[in-house]
Amino acid sequence: MTEAVVDPRRRVVQEGLISKSLTAIAKIIQWLLLSLLFSIIIEWAGMVLWWPDEGLDHSRTMLVTEISYLDTDFRRSVVTSDPAQFAKRFADNTYHYLFEVTRFVDFIRWVSPSPMHNEQGLRPRLHKIFNPIAEFVIAMMQVTQVFSVRLAILTLAMPIFVLFSLVALVDGLVQRDLRRWGGGRESSFIYHYAKKAALPLVVLAWVIYLALPFSLHPTFVVLPFATLFALTVAVTASTFKKYL
3-state SS string over 229-242? Predict the structure, then answer.
């Protein structure tokens, strides 16, 4: 029987802890940027198709509504003592670094006023280009602030996923011991699929909530996905193999 010839120049490259961490961070940033881009595109489409009468007021109302959720329903958190102030500071810092430090706000203030009679130079040309899309640019800036507030809310909500998963892990391990001592059957098929579904549920919760084109109380997003995440943890723990 002919054995396969292995090229000695080929080496198996295994990722270390640092490279895996950097890869995970890069993927998180990628998903966040995609969610932000999707939110902006949906807002622009809505300004043209679904809420043309509201215009800029739609994204401005969303921002006020998102912060009001924190003021009324999220007064305590494990992460910070003042969730509303934490979200406002996060949104203000995002606006500062993205639009003020980059001088984007100064550019808008410079190009927005109508050019004077017989004014020459670059500004009249830029004003002619910017004026038709001015509302869309400002809407983009407001949606970015809404995105920042929602990102802060999800950060504050992460302890819920941890708490639910701990309870589910204990319950799953108890079910595993009962199955082990009772001679129950194993199912590696269920175990592997439940294990693979855990992390995508967390990612999906973040993507859906961050990309919503309307205001929705975070409880209606966080709790269902936290429950599903806990269910996958419980199933994974309960179907883990009986003998190591």
Answer: HHHHHHHHHHCCCC
List Cα–Cα distances, 73 to 69, 77, 84, 107, 166, in angstroms. 6, 11, 10, 38, 24
Task: Note whether residue 95 is domain-resident.
Answer: yes
pTM score, two decimals? 0.76
- The string of pLDDT tens digits covering residues 132-177 is 888 888 888 888 888 888 888 888 888 888 888 898 888 888 877 7
Record the tokens describing residue 33, joined without a space. 């940027």
Q: Count of domains in the chain?
A: 1
For residue 18, being part of any structural domain is answered with no
User: Tell me: the pLDDT tens digits for 17-52?
Assistant: 777 777 878 888 888 888 888 888 888 888 888 888
C-beta of residue 139 within 8 angstroms of C-beta of residue 59: yes
Whether residue 109 is contained in a domain is answered as: yes
Q: At 101, list the tokens.
A: 């430090």
State the residue range of the domain holding 232.
27-39+49-238
138 inside domain: yes
